[in-house]
Specification:
mainly alpha; de novo design (two linked rop proteins)
C-alpha cells in the first residue's frame, strides 16, 4: 500500500475513534446526570420522612401555630407529588416552597423556649439541617453535570454527534424566576 492510502486509513481510524469517544462521553454524562438526580431524590425522601416527626414535636409545644404547621404539611405533599412527576421546573418550585415553609416553622419555634430545649426537637432540627446541606450539595453536583452535558451538546464538533443521535439537553435544578421566592422569609408577630 502506498503512503497516501496509509494516511487515509489513519485519518479514518482517528475519525472513527473520535466519534466513538464523543458518543461514549455523552452516554457517561447522561448517566452521571441521572445518578445525580437520584442522589437528590434520596435526600428529598429523607427530608420528607423527617418533616412529620418535626411537626408532631412542634405540635406538642405550640397550640396556636396551626396555620404554619398546615402550610408545611401542604408544601411537603406538593413537593412529594412534584418529585414523582418528572417535571424539573415543577419539582424545583415545590422544593423551594417547602424550604420556605420550613424556614417559617423554625422561625416560629424561636418563640417557644421549651421546644428549643427539647432534645428530640434539637436532634430532628440537626438532622434536617444536615439533610438540607446534602440536598444543596446534590443539587450542585447535578447542575454541574448538566452544565457539562449541555456544553458538550453545544460545542463543535461534538454537537454533530449529539444531533445525529438526538441527544437532548437536561434541565437545571434551579430556583424559579419569581423574585419573591429568592427573598428571605420574614415572620412577624
Amino acid at each position: 500500500m502506498s503512503t497516501i492510502t496509509w494516511i487515509i486509513v489513519g485519518v479514518v481510524a482517528v475519525g472513527v475513534n473520535w466519534f466513538i469517544a464523543a458518543y461514549n462521553g455523552f452516554v457517561r454524562l447522561r448517566n452521571r446526570g441521572k445518578e445525580a438526580w437520584s442522589d437528590i431524590e434520596v435526600q428529598l425522601k429523607r427530608r420528607f420522612n423527617l418533616i412529620p416527626n418535626i411537626i408532631e414535636t412542634v405540635k406538642g409545644y405550640t397550640s396556636h401555630e396551626k396555620e404554619t404547621l398546615e402550610n408545611v404539611t401542604k408544601a411537603r405533599t406538593a413537593a412529594m407529588s412534584a418529585e414523582g412527576s418528572g417535571n424539573m421546573k415543577e419539582a424545583a418550585r415545590a422544593e423551594n416552597m417547602l424550604s420556605g415553609a420550613l424556614k417559617t416553622l423554625f422561625a416560629v419555634t424561636e418563640n417557644y423556649p421549651d421546644l428549643k430545649a427539647n432534645a428530640n426537637f434539637l436532634d430532628l432540627q440537626r438532622e434536617l439541617a444536615d439533610t438540607e446541606n446534602k440536598i444543596q450539595a446534590s443539587r450542585r453536583f447535578y447542575n454541574g453535570t448538566v452544565k457539562d452535558l449541555n456544553n458538550k451538546i453545544d460545542m463543535f464538533p461534538s454537537n454533530i454527534v449529539a444531533k445525529m443521535f438526538k441527544i437532548g439537553k437536561m434541565e437545571f435544578f434551579d430556583l424559579d424566576d419569581n423574585p419573591q421566592e429568592r427573598e428571605v422569609v420574614r415572620v412577624k408577630f
